[in-house]
From TrEMBL:
Region of interest (Disordered), ranges: 41-91, 372-392
PANTHER family: BLL1576 PROTEIN
Keyword presence, Ribosomal protein: no
Record flagged with keyword tRNA-binding: no
Start-end of Basic residues biased regions: 60-72
Biased composition regions of type Polar residues, renumbered to the chain: 43-53
Protein name listed in UniProt: IS66 family transposase
Species for this entry: Candidatus Chlorohelix allophototropha
DUF6444 domain boundaries: 13-85
Keywords: Plasmid
Record-annotated Transposase IS66 central domain positions: 165-444
Length: 482
């Protein structure tokens, strides 16, 4: 073999090795990305992602830290706090007199002596000795007219429709236990049987729920109308299982109003049919999902979501800009709260400019640390390459910075969307306790009644009294507090 042939052979071998090395480098890069993805998935919990706290398990992670600063106050009630201790009643139901029988000094018999007018009272609050349902029998009699001899029979009250039925108070208690305390139907039957010795079937409870649902149609319309007129509206959605299929629960709320609705879809088809967001003109606070952004109202993003994502970037990927950005948002939130406490309506132009400059500097640092991906998908996949989580977060913080900082420009806008998340949390608890809804009607019943009870609770009303009035045919309308 000549030198030229040997050189050609070596060049060919080198080209093959170079191609193999490039292929192995690409494979190593894919494996590293895969490992990072799996590690990131395992390291995510409620403090650095949108996962609920219930997914964390029982092991408390030492890396979790609160962003709240210590107030310096001791735990418990503060000085000047009005307590809620049990107070004596001015009109006790039963009085038991305890009289001394002998003198404690000389043992003289005191049984025939009159008691002195002064006494020391102590009261015990206890359940009645026997809990039983109060049965009222309605009797209709007939009378014969002395003039025309016609026999006229009296009519039962409109609320008394059956030979035997439960009264409005009992029905209100049953619906309250199911829709507010979230007890399953079987356990409500068991509880009421234990207390009142009354055999109650789940079918009877379903009828009570359906009756309450029909009575609350008008209050629900009032709630929806008031929500469309609110200045600030909190929106969120979560999965809901109905008839074994995944549906979506949509919530729209304010500090005084709550509306729930379930739908097979998550997006605009659902929110359009619900009808609140299409008519809303105020500021909608949400997690930045694209479906909300299509509505022509002012938008504010939930910064609690951003703080969790920033915690992930700093703790797992060790990017310092994320910790500084967290400090920026927390500092700005505290400054807004201090200004609001002084009855101010906005921050000064100089302070806003200061925070906006820091904001821009940190965005630039983050983008420098997270450049956009180069090239296309590996293994022949088409389309744009997938961006990293930090890059997606930075793009949102950069392009939607006004929506991120809306709480600093408008003091009536909150820092986060925690109100909607709290409103939605108990419905998730209901799913964990009782499983999915077995029918579309059952899900609709629950959403309307739960939304009404949440609204009345926010407005300081007694829920059992509200349900009692509902079963009496006069459900209290919510106050139009927006």
């Amino acid at each position: 073999m000549t030198l030229e042939e040997q050189l050609a052979q070596l060049q060919n071998d080198y080209a093959q090795l170079e191609a193999k090395a490039a292929s192995q480098a690409a494979l190593i890069a894919q494996l590293i990305e895969r490992i990072q993805t799996l590690e990131a998935r395992l390291s995510q919990d409620s403090h650095n992602s949108s996962k609920p706290p219930s997914s964390d398990g029982f092991k408390r992670s030492p890396k979790k830290r609160s962003l709240r600063k210590s107030s310096g106050k001791k735990p418990g009630g503060q000085p000047g706090h009005e307590g809620q201790a049990l107070k004596q009643s001015e009109n006790p139901d039963t009085v038991i007199a305890h009289l001394p029988t002998t003198c404690e000094k000389c043992q003289t018999d005191l049984t025939k002596e009159a008691a002195l007018p002064h006494f020391e009272p102590r009261q015990v609050f206890e359940l009645p000795t026997q809990l039983k349902l109060h049965v009222t029998e309605h009797r209709t009699y007939s009378k014969k007219c002395p003039t025309c001899q016609t026999v006229t029979k009296a009519k039962f009250p409109q609320s008394v429709k059956n030979w035997v039925q439960y009264g409005p108070g009992f029905r209100a208690l049953a619906v309250y236990l199911i829709t507010y305390q979230l007890l399953p139907y079987a356990r409500v039957c068991e509880l009421l049987n234990e207390i009142y010795s009354e055999s109650l079937s789940p079918g009877s409870l379903v009828n009570m729920i359906a009756e309450c649902y029909e009575q609350l149609a008008e209050p629900e319309k009032t709630i929806k109308t008031a929500l469309t007129q609110a200045k600030v509206l909190h929106c969120d959605e979560t999965g809901l299982y109905v008839e074994g299929k995944r549906h979506w629960l949509h919530v729209a709320s304010t500090p005084h109003l709550t509306h729930y609705a379930h739908h097979l879809r998550r997006g605009s088809k659902a929110t359009d049919e619900i009808g609140i967001l299409p008519a809303f003109q105020g500021a909608a606070i949400h997690d930045g999902w694209s479906n909300y952004l299509r509505y022509a109202c002012t938008h504010g993003l939930c910064n609690a979501h951003h703080l969790r994502e920033l915690a992930f970037v700093y703790e797992q990927l060790k990017q310092a800009w994320a910790a500084e950005f967290t400090t920026l948002l927390v500092d700005l939130k505290e400054e807004v709260e201090v200004a609001r406490a002084r009855s101010e309506t906005s921050l000064s132009s100089a302070r806003l400019a200061h925070f906006e400059e820091r904001y821009q500097q940190l965005i630039a640092q983050g983008l420098a640390a997270n450049p956009p991906p180069q090239g296309g998908w590996p293994c022949g996949k088409r389309g744009k390459p997938r961006q990293s989580k930090p890059k997606n977060l930075l793009d949102r913080l950069d392009k939607q910075r006004h929506q991120v900082l809306l709480f600093a420009y408008r003091f009536d806008v909150p820092f986060d969307n925690n109100l909607a998340e709290r409103d939605i949390r108990m419905v998730k608890v209901q799913q964990k306790v009782s499983g999915c809804f077995r029918s579309q009607e059952g899900a609709s019943f629950f959403c309307r009644i739960r939304g009404y009870l949440s609204t009345m609770k926010k407005q300081g009303e007694n829920l059992l009294v509200a349900l009692l009035d509902t079963f009496c045919g006069q459900p209290p309308l919510p106050k139009l507090l927006v």
